[in-house]
Amino acid sequence: MPNVLDGLSLVDTTGRLILAATVASLLAGIGCHAFLRARYGAIERDLRQNGEPRPHFSHPLLVRIVREAEEAARRSGDANAQAIIEDTFQAELGSALLAERFVRAATGLVLVLGLLGTFYGLTLSIGKLVSLVSSDAGQINDVATAVTTGLSQALAGMAVAFSNSLLGVFAAVVLTVIGVVHNVTDRRTGLMIQIETYLDRLLPASGAARAGAGGGGGFDQAVARLESTVARFESALRHFSESTRDLREVQLVVSLKGDGR
Q1: Using one digit for the tens of pLDDT, what is the confidence trace for 108-138?
Q2: Considering the domain boundaries, does residue 159 fall inside one?
Q3: Of the candidates 261, 4, 3, 14, which has an alpha carbon nearest to the alpha carbon of residue 157?
């Protein structure tokens, strides 16, 4: 560790800025992991604790999902739970999804920053070596001093290159291990599956409750309409029978009068 710190003392301002950006990316990636884990964990606990027997959630995401699913079920009798969940996640968890995208890109970002520092340091070192080799020894009063100074500047460039490479690889390893232990994308996918499963249980129960509440009234109305139709049909039959009897009586009277002549 002391040797590493001694090498860092040779890094120039630009190299230190690249190192600082790499460290900031590493800390931001770890912070986003912790933020997403806490956010998705809170939603999962709310779903597990406040979903039965009837939903009384405190998180606005779950409240909105249940409300839209029930409205869709009332309108069409069938709700596309997956589409409702995805749309609500996009609307309610914009910051979390942005943090999730950063987490996925953080490993590549720290590697790119490490390579940037490496190429910058190598370019700086090669430039100093070329300047040292191409200098005119006759114009230099103290050759030993000039060579020492040139080599020190070249080594400073190498320090920039290798310190950035080391830090970039270390940060990438840390973020990769965290991603393997706790993958935030898998956590979100699992949470969405749990919500969809809960809606599959909730919506049929709600539909059955609505059917039980309104089914008796609908059956009574259907029976009443059927009885009214039967009564009208019987009345029409009686009217037709009376009309037919009157017609037969008229025909009988007419035939009797004809026989009397």
Answers
A1: 999 999 999 988 888 877 776 666 656 555 5
A2: yes
A3: 14
